[in-house]
Write a structure and sequence with these properties.
Radius of gyration: 25 Å
Strand content: 25-35%
Helix content: 25-40%
CATH architecture of the largest domain: 2-Layer Sandwich
Number of strands: 15
Oligomer: single chain
Number of domains: 2
Distance between the termini: 83 Å
Bound molecules: zinc ion
Length: about 280
């Protein structure tokens, strides 16, 4: 039995009705299969959706051999109809971050010829691994180009080309795909085989922030955030640096140097204290 994937046709579908096909119980948790679903199962670096199914909470979603299994908090009766509601704020954030990743990977492929060899949307940041070296300066340049793509408000379109059509097309793909390939095109920036959920046009990403780059497995790992997650990250870091600067009575952009001086002073004081203790001799 294969589940109809409503999220592939419409990533903005936050509520749907489906019929319960199966419900199995395993050690107090319940796994439910539906005829169709808008819940995205974990895969391709994108986490599973959360939300509710009837009066149960959806804790996890996994695809096994074409069937999408929803891990829920209570039993659902096979043969009945059920309403599914996604935590759409979370899903939309995933769509922004996932589409941002396509833009950055497309730019890295075009500018440097490196492949995206790993992608993970973690709770802290999104990480993308490339099989080549990027410097901090190149990262700054990529960030500007990526945000230019946001400004262009370019359409993001999913298509299902035939095998013959595919042979004439250039697209990014991590592996050989059996069966129908789903291509996701960010017009002017990227074309990639992907089954995830994306925004309809790049303006919806709002902001692409590349946070850092570090050496990883012979290439690099780039960490990044998009949309609200990027704004929130900026807020937290800004508050932090302004607060630190106030404590040190310097301007925010001088906080780093002030901390270096403070650490140096601390080392000197410790040395001085040690000498004083030694000069005072043993107590008692
Ligand atoms: Zn994708």
């Amino acid at each position: 039995m294969s589940t109809e994937k409503l999220y592939e046709a419409d990533a903005y579908l936050g509520e749907f009705t489906a019929s319960v096909e199966k419900c199995v119980s395993e050690a107090g948790i319940f796994k439910v299969a539906l005829n169709q679903t808008a819940f995205y199962p974990e895969g391709g670096g994108q986490p599973a959706d959360c939300g509710t199914l009837g009066n149960t909470r959806v804790l996890d979603v996994q695809e096994i051999d074409g069937t999408i299994w929803h891990t829920v908090t209570g039993p659902l009766e096979p043969g009945t109809k059920v309403v599914g509601k996604l935590d759409f704020q979370r899903r939309f954030s995933n769509m922004q971050n996932h589409t941002g990743e396509h833009i950055v990977s497309g730019l890295v492929a075009r500018e440097y010829g490196y492949h995206n060899v790993g992608f993970h949307m973690g709770s802290e940041a999104v990480t993308v691994d490339f099989d080549g070296i990027l410097t901090k300066e190149q990262l700054y340049e990529l960030e500007l180009q990526a945000n230019d793509a946001v400004l262009q408000n370019a359409p993001v379109i999913a298509s299902y080309p035939s095998r013959e059509e595919l042979e004439t097309m250039e697209y990014r793909s991590k592996k050989e795909i059996e069966g129908q390939v789903r291509l996701v095109t960010v017009e002017g920036y990227d074309c990639c085989a992907c089954c995830g959920t994306h925004v309809a046009s790049t303006g919806e990403i709002r902001l692409i922030k590349l946070l850092g780059v570090q050496k990883y497995k012979g290439g690099v790992r780039v960490s990044m955030l998009c949309g609200e997650r990027a704004f929130r990250d900026y807020q937290v870091k800004h508050e932090n640096i302004v607060g630190t600067a106030q404590l040190l009575s310097v301007k925010p952009e001088e906080a780093g140097d002030a901390v270096v001086r403070l650490k140096q002073k601390n080392i000197e004081l410790k040395k001085e204290l040690k000498q004083l203790k030694k000069a005072a001799g043993p107590r008692g």
